[in-house]
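Structure ticket #2291
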Amino acid sequence: MRIIARKTVKDFVERRPEYADAIEPAGAWYRQTEAADWATPSDLKREVGSASILKDSRAVFNIAGNKYRIVVWINYPYRVVYIRFIGTHSQYDRIDAQKI
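Resolution: structure written out below.
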């Protein structure tokens, strides 16, 4: 999968020192996603059982023991993952994952 944009993840983990514990889990998520070949939401769910599949080709990944969440929009035919949000669990609770 091609991921747009790595800078979103990098900016998040570098923004504040308290997010430093997200560096390794975010990197692991990035590598796993980059190596994936998800043609359908079922493919994603089969590979990443903890991912939540939302409407409109969106998915939510829990990283670092569910301390952080990554919301993505996936263009399955073109194998492109667009990062829409990365943040703490409490920050995620304040957004609408379907609209961000």
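Closing remark: Residues 23-35 form the longest helix (13 residues).
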